[in-house]
Amino acid sequence: MTDSSRSARRLAALLAGAGVMHFVAPRPFDMVVPRRLPGSPRTWTYLSGIAELACAAAVLNPRTRRLGALASAGLFVGVFPANVKMAYDWRDRPLPLRAGAYARLPLQAPLVVWAVKVSQTAGESEFRKD
Hints:
Membrane topology: Multi-pass membrane protein
Structural class: mainly alpha
Oligomer: single chain
Helix content: over 70%
Number of strands: 0
Protein name: DoxX family protein
Keywords: Membrane, Transmembrane, Transmembrane helix
Subcellular location: Membrane
């Protein structure tokens, strides 16, 4: 297995884990849905969970990896407003919680870069050529 394949699998695992959490424990996700979005926060929580699971599945499949990774990068950008809302809403929470909320903001950039890199290496062989 190549390094690019391992990276894709790790990205898919991250996305799948986050996607599952949207259904297992939706309340924390509901709380960060920006109020400006129409409809119920729970609907957005479930839709974003489905999107993460779909991206994970697409990244796992070598034939859809490039598109899945690009969709993942778009998803990471798209959920950034929820992270901003969380940081704003948690500004009066105890320091460890507040620090965690603030730390999420700059962490989105490496996730986007990671997904883009996976998309760029998607055509590489699954096995090393010796």
